[in-house]
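hiii so um. not sure if this is the right channel but i have a protein structure encoded as tokens and i wanna go backwards to a sequence. like what aa goes where. can anyone help
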């Protein structure tokens, strides 16, 4: 393991987003980030109107809906050129907007968000899972991907990703970047589709070894993940997931292919919604370093980047570090290194 302490040179906090947002999800892993980012550095976010033009894989940039069968369409956005194609997978409840905003603070200069930053050196794609939240003002559920009813299985989420990439003719193999619970999606995708997987980057990702540390609080934790207490919880199609089934699916699947891997981890504590049992936070903070180390141990010579001063949303708080980790793995893939 190679551990890198990535010091930001300043204290990155939730202040900017909390000050400006109408809705704050400063909640445990895999839930939606603070929304409505006026006043924070961000790329231009599209409106919630779905785009319907057909995919054009050879075009420099594509943004629109892709027909994945069964009367369903999923929003996809791709930009840049090069190989491998990077696929950005957002966390629980998050639309692809999470890869297009930043919250760096002085003395750290403003940096490009992850999606446009990666597009400068390779092809990169992001998409909206059904029922995820747009970073608009006010926040809304995405209308760009066809709603589905939950709770969803991890297998169905991986199937959606495979159908999307196939229908859109996105060239593989892919470097899969998963934030939070998105790391479970990318991990199972790699296990099911090893020949289509070139590498993996876990951004403060969820793990399979969490349940024992919560004991009797595990059920409460799962309820909090699926229903974080926001105004959107009761909206039709709001994303919910069978987390126990997801852990079982990853555990039972074949091992990961031997590919280059990198892990980025937060250093600041999680925040829980008001009224949540303090025991949940205690359990979460106790297990999280173990979760991150288990991810590092999946492949030999895996670099472990500690985003000093960053909370769970490392890609927002420290986009430069996130982009650098992706660039590192892209380089290892192109140099033919399996895991070193």
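sure thing!! here u go:
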């Amino acid at each position: 393991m190679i551990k890198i302490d990535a010091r930001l040179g300043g204290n990155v906090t939730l202040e900017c987003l909390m000050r400006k947002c109408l809705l704050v999800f400063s909640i445990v892993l895999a839930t939606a980030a603070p929304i409505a980012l006026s006043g924070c550095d961000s790329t231009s976010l599209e409106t919630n109107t779905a785009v319907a033009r057909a995919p054009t894989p050879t075009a420099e940039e594509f943004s629109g809906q892709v027909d994945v069968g069964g009367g369903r369409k999923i929003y996809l956005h791709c930009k840049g050129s090069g190989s491998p194609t990077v696929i950005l997978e957002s966390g629980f409840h998050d639309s692809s907007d999470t890869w297009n905003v930043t919250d760096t603070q002085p003395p750290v200069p403003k940096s490009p968000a992850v999606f446009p930053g990666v597009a400068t050196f390779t092809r990169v794609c992001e998409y909206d899972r059904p029922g995820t939240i747009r970073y608009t003002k006010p926040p809304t559920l995405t209308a760009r991907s066809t709603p589905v009813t939950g709770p969803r299985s991890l297998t169905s989420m991986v199937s959606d990703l495979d159908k999307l990439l196939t229908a859109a003719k996105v060239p593989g193999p892919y470097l899969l970047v998963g934030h939070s619970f998105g790391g479970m999606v990318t991990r199972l995708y790699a296990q099911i589709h090893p020949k289509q997987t070139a590498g993996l980057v876990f951004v403060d990702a969820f793990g399979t070894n969490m349940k024992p540390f919560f004991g009797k609080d595990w059920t409460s934790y799962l309820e909090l993940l699926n229903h974080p207490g926001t105004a959107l919880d009761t909206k039709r199609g709001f994303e919910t997931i069978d987390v126990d089934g997801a852990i079982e699916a990853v555990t039972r699947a074949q091992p990961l292919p031997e590919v280059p891997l990198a892990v980025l981890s937060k250093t600041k504590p999680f925040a829980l919604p008001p009224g949540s049992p303090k025991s949940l936070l205690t359990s979460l903070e106790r297990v999280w370093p173990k979760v991150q180390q288990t991810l590092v141990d999946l492949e030999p010579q895996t670099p472990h980047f500690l985003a000093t001063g960053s909370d769970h949303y490392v890609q927002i708080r420290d986009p430069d570090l996130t982009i650098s980790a992706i660039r590192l793995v892209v380089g290892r893939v192109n140099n033919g290194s399996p895991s070193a």
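oh and Residues 315 and 322 are 6 Å apart (CA to CA).
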